Every structure is written in structure tokens, then in C-alpha cells.
Fold this sequence. Notes:
Mean pLDDT: 82
Structural class: mainly alpha
Shape: globular
Oligomer: single chain
Radius of gyration: 19 Å
Amino acid sequence: MRAAASAAxxxxxxxxxxxxxxxxxxxxxxxxxxxxxxxxxxxxxxVRSIGMCxxxxxxxxxxxxxxxxALDGAxxxxxxxxxxxxxxxxxxxxxxxxxxxxxxxxALIMALGPVITLILLRxxxxxxxxxxxxxxxxxxxxxxxxLVAEKLWKAGPLAGIGDLTLLLAALAFSGYTIGVxxxxxxxxxxxxxxxxxxxxxxxxxxxxxxxxxxxxxxxxPVTDWAAYAWTVLVSAFGGWLAWNWVNRVRGVGRTAPLLYxxxxxxxxIAWSMGGETFTxxxxxxxxxxxxxxxxTQRARVAPERRICPAPEAAVSHPPT
Length: 320
């Protein structure tokens, strides 16, 4: 009896944490756009890399795991290319994409990650998509096209650069999600996350050093530094740790739908705090895109052969 009550209480706590993370990730798009204006994208990425590196070192020390893992040749190569895709490529692309686009469009396009992951899984032969899945893909793609078409119609061809960059960021993250699976199975998710973060840090620091040199960090107000701490500790590293815990308690299948809350929360915060406006075509496009993602994920995906991660696991991670 007590065990059942304790399990139910743990479930409720995990659900509460999952909803809180959805709110945090929805807010992070507006918060990051504010930081990009204050620091510049390069200046922000420089200090973000330092913060993420410190978090990774602290986590590895807590776990008692080595900073430089003893991996065989194949795993070392995989670790390098998934780092290039995820903690380097995805982070750079998503940062500039958010800066060039709007907070709501950014949240919506990044929510397409599960659909892109399923398409990649189909291309590499890990999953077979049926008619329902392809219908969801078409629905999501149509919604994004409607969203981008309105921007192009009103502001010209350059208006879609941010959204295109975000699509590339989502593609990079999906490739990372699939590629990192075997490493996570063999070495653990927290360890691999920390190792890729540490490997990415010197690359990001080198890429953004010039921008950091031009940034007057000492002139930034306390509110900007509080927002920076939010992006590192809540939206990024801490959010990943909490999300992994929620997945363990509730299971991937019951946790992943919480990510559907992120775009509407991002829309509400972008409207109330960022002054973003919403036209009828934008709302219709958003509805089609989110509906396509939901439809695609709810439809059963038939595996063709075992390539980690399994389709149901590969679509459950938030691209933040």
C-alpha cells in the first residue's frame, strides 16, 4: 500500500517536473533572443560554452567518470562526429536561427525534430513508415511552408533565412540523436552528454573568440546574467538532467507528448513579453505543423532492423 502511494507520488512529481520543463523550454526562445541582442550570438555562445563545460566537468566528477574516456577506435570516431553534429553544429545553427527568426517560429520548427528523425530512420533502414506516418509528415511540412510563405510574401526572400537555418539545426540534432544512441547504450547517457559537451567547448570557444573580444560583458546588467544562468542551468544542462529523470520515472512514451506544450507556451510568452503578433495564416500553419508531429508520433512505426536508438526512443528528446 505504501509502495503504491510512494510510486504514485513519484509519478506526480515527475509529471510536474516535465510540465515545468516544457514551460522553461517555451520561455527560453524569447529569453535567448533577448540575450543575443545584449551579447551578440557569438558573445553569448562563448560564455555559454564556458558554463556548459563547467557543468560537464562537475557532473563527471560527481559520477566518478573520467574526463577523457578510454574508448575503442570506432567509438572515438563516433563520439567525434556526433559532437560535430550536435553540441557544435546544432548549437551554432539553432542560435543564429533563433536570432534571425521569431521566438514562436523557432519553437515550432524545432518541434519538427521527431518528424525529421523518423524520416532519417526510414532512410537508413531502421524504420518503415506507413501511410499514416507519411500523412503526418506532409501535414507538418505543409504547416511550416505556410508559415514561411507568409514571411516571404510580406518581407521578401531574406525573411526565411532564419527558418531555413532552424530546419538545418533540427536536421543536425536528429542526426545526432540517431548517431549517439550506440554510445549511450554502451557508456551511459549522462557520461556521453558530458563528453560531447567537453569536446565541443574548445571548438565553440575558438569560433566565437573574436565576437567575445568585442563584447563588453562588464557592462551587462544583472538581469542579462540571470538570463544567461537560466539558459545554461535550466534550459540546457540542468534541463537535460531533469528530462532524463522524468523519462526514467514515467517512461519515454508517456513523457514525449509533454513536448507538444512547448510551441504554444513559446507563442504565449513571445506575445506577452516579446511583442510577437499572430496572423490567421501563422496560426493555421502552426496548427498544421504541430498536428502533423502529433499524428506522426502517435501512429505506430514498424522497425525493419535494430539500429539504436529505436524509433520510439529517438523521437523523445528535446532539441534544446
